[in-house]
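User: Could you go from structure to sequence for me? I need the amino acid at each position, not a summary. Structure tokens:
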């Protein structure tokens, strides 16, 4: 839960399915807020989803909706520019030995020189949330992760990146295989995975990757026709013999 107090006229950064979204609160009532996004959508925002809130000077009961949307969009551009100046790693190096949590505004004072306003604090929130490696957000405060946690998150991200790259390559190979534009020699590692999947089925440890690649390529979860098409298997291939180790 966030400790942020909300009022109508606040410009908020809140968590939704896609990450952080910027919106202007039009009304706050009974623990819920009605907000306007820069795209003109009205959304319901729970206080616990708000990571940063500050009064918007352009809000007023007589303000035109189009003007409000333009001002929200402008605030978003300002915050995006400020967020680019925030180095999560440099902040973490400075605070990694501290156990207490730090507010976005306190961190903004460390990052920015001169006058620090609401946009600066919001920019820190954006930068640290998108970074994912160095800080944990909880109840409106940021806590430094331990060095071993940072290393683990980086390693995990690298594994995910490599998997996504391999998946994209596998999907491309499958699509091109339908048009005879590629052969087994163009991605032998993946061809071996497809063979193992055909032979072992649910028992194959790489099953999830193969199935995800087939889905991404718009193909049925049966790579046998693909392997026949590229000349790896014959149409009458005996997979049982292969499973028994009789056929190579």
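Assistant: Here is the amino acid at each position, in order:
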């Amino acid at each position: 839960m966030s400790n942020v107090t909300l009022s109508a006229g606040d410009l908020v950064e809140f968590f939704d399915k896609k990450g952080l979204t910027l919106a202007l609160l039009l009304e706050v009532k009974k623990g819920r807020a009605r907000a306007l996004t820069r795209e003109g959508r009205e959304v319901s925002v729970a206080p616990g989803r708000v990571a940063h809130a500050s009064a918007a000077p352009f809000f007023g009961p007589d303000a035109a909706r189009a003007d409000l949307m333009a001002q929200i969009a402008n605030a978003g551009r300002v915050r995006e520019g400020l967020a680019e100046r925030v180095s999560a790693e440099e902040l973490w190096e400075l605070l990694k030995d501290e156990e207490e949590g730090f507010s976005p505004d306190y961190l903004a004072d460390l990052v920015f020189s001169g006058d620090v306003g609401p946009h600066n604090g919001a920019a820190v929130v954006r930068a640290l949330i998108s970074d994912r490696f160095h800080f944990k957000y909880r109840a409106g405060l940021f806590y430094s992760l331990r060095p071993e946690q940072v290393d683990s998150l980086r390693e995990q991200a690298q594994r995910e990146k490599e998997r996504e790259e391999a998946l994209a390559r596998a999907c491309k190979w499958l699509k091109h295989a339908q048009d005879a534009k590629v052969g087994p020699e163009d991605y032998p590692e993946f061809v071996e995975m497809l063979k193992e999947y055909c032979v072992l089925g649910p028992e194959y440890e790489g099953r999830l990757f193969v199935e995800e690649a087939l889905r991404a390529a718009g193909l049925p979860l049966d790579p046998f026709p693909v392997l026949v098409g590229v000349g790896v298997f014959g149409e009458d291939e005996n997979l049982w013999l292969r499973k028994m180790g009789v056929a190579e």
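One structural detail worth keeping in mind: The beta strands are 10-16, 19-29, 32-37, 42-45, 50-55, 135-138, 141-144.
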